[in-house]
Amino acid sequence: MASVASCPAEWQANRDIRSEEDQLRKSEADIASGWTRLHKQEGLVLQLKASGRGYAEAVRLAALLRDNLAEWERHRAMIEQRIAYLKRRRAAGST
Hints:
Elements: H1 7-51, H2 56-93
Helix pairs in contact: 1-2
């Protein structure tokens, strides 16, 4: 059983983990939304191309969305790593 002195540290660790898990959920929602926007943009590119209209800006926006998604996915991976680190640290402190 943890001593009374270690409880605040354990509570802080739990708060930190919950906070990171909240960030992870937000990140995952943002990524899902980003993929939806990218697919819509790619559909627009195809429509513009098929109609013979200019589509260079639409292609540029799709590329920017793709780049942003790659960054968001890297950020999500960092959050996952942080959660794993915090859980390992909490487990090591509870022994």
